[in-house]
Amino acid sequence: PVLDSEDAWVSVEGPVSIVELALEQKRVHYPLVEHQFVLCTVLYAIMRLALKGVKPLSLFDSKGKNAFFKDLTSIQLLPSGDMDPNVLSIRQQFLLKVVSAAVQSLCSSQKDREVSEEDYFPFEKGKNWPTLAADLAQYLQISEDLVRRHYVCELYSYGIDHLGEE
């Protein structure tokens, strides 16, 4: 981008402006940032829902693991469309655990009260973990429908039929 500046500012001495510093930075490789975002979301879900026995790096293949330790401006080889079935199975189990833990915490905190779906997730305003798990399924190459079906089954099994019907 071209930045026009007034003549009075040209002769000013001092440190380099923050705009000039920002323009000198290298561009980030967006798919690598997305990859880091998936890891952060996985770690946050594990922490927030107190999931035990989940190894976050087991959700990624060797290319994916190596990409975590590279500079965000470098262009890395990220996992392709063909994934190891074992990794896909681990990812699927993880997403189903997230949904189950979210519904379980929903039921334990909101018994005997008629409330809306947003009120069922009091730990974060606007953070609906089952929906987040379905969105995360796209990045992890798992069927969204599988996650949503599991969510509905969990709602029915905990007796929240009105949300399951929706």
UniProtKB/TrEMBL annotation:
The Rab3GAP regulatory subunit C-terminal domain extends over 1-166
Q: InterPro entries annotated for this entry?
A: RAB3GAP2_C
Family matches, as Pfam families:
RAB3GAP2_C
UniProt name for this protein: RBGPR protein
Q: Which organism is it from?
A: Urocynchramus pylzowi
Q: Which gene encodes it?
A: Rab3gap2
